[in-house]
Amino acid sequence: MRRVLTAAVALAAAATLATGCDTGGADQAAPAPSATAGPSSPADTPTASPSASTTPSDTPTSKPAPKPQKLRSGAKGERVVALQKRLTELGYWNGKPDGSFGGKTQQAVFALQKAAGLGRDGVVGPKTQKALDRGVRPKARSTSGRVIEISKKRQLLMLVNDGEVTEVFNTSTGSNQHYEQEGQTYLADTPSGRFRVSRQIDGWRHAPLGLLWRPKYFNGGIAVHGAASVPPYPASHGCARVSMAAMNYLWTTDKIPMQTKVWVY
């Protein structure tokens, strides 16, 4: 819960729900915006006699095999298809393989890099490729039932069924930075704990702190919601952001129905 840094505001907020990204208002969807998510050197051959002249060897030198190019946003082709299929196989959601390294694929690579403890640049280089080859996957903490687990340390949102992680998403939770609203100072944190999805809005929520796409609230004003920007580090006011494409998927497949357990740690 965002902690109000003045005693007066703390007393006033005691009777309200947790604030987070959304400080209240009717549970109505607002109209959606119009936008939809070196050359060879001479050979050192000794001469037959001091008077003989030497000439460069015509024998070509062997060259090491070129290293595979890194895969990054904008790449296309069969290597991207293979990457997308492997990410899906490991549970990192990135939509349907289409051979185009776009935003969904980058979000999945972020998630893989987080699970593997690598630098989060969204580029598939040697280290990230090794993580793919090893089949790196995060582990769940829950052991039974359907649970949404949100790891603040790793910045991952995981769908878990009976202790098995089935799908993994890049998420961005509270930045833990102070911010100002209506003359008061708050801390942008995502409280740890065990909750349940208690309300939802199928559309845009124009919250006081920004736009929330199809939010699923689990702790007062704190929700899992789609956002246009989901960086690989904590950046929200308290909610757990996922990409808008990921949020659409979670809604259309009913992956987070009402009363779903949500564990934040």
- From the N-terminal CA to the C-terminal CA, the straight-line distance is 13 Å
Strand order of the largest sheet: 3-2-1-12-6
Which structural category do the helix and sheet elements fall into? alpha+beta
Count the beta strands.
Answer: 12
Mean pLDDT: 85
Helix content: 10-25%
Largest sheet: 5 strands, mixed
Q: Please compute the radius of gyration using only Cα atoms.
A: 26 Å
Strand content: 15-25%
Shape: globular
Count the helices. How many? 5
Order of helices and strands, N to C? Answer: HHHHEEEEEEEEEEEHE
Unreliable stretches, pLDDT < 50, 5 or more residues?
A: 1-18, 34-57
Model description:
The chain is of the alpha+beta class. Helix content is 20%, strand content 23%. It has a 5-stranded mixed β-sheet. A hairpin with a 2-residue loop joins strand 9 and strand 10. The two termini are 13 Å apart.
What does the secondary structure layout of this molecule look like, with pairings?
Blueprint: H1 7-13, H2 78-90, H3 103-116, H4 126-134, E1 146-151, E2 156-161, E3 164-170, E4 178-181, E5 184-187, E6 193-196, E7 199-200, E8 204-207, E9 210-219, E10 222-227, E11 240-243, H5 244-252, E12 261-264
Parallel strand pairs: 1-12, 10-11
Antiparallel strand pairs: 1-2, 2-3, 4-5, 6-12, 7-9, 8-9, 9-10
Task: Write a brief structural summary.
The protein is an alpha+beta fold.
Keywords:
single chain; alpha+beta; five-stranded mixed beta sheet; 23% strand; disordered N terminus
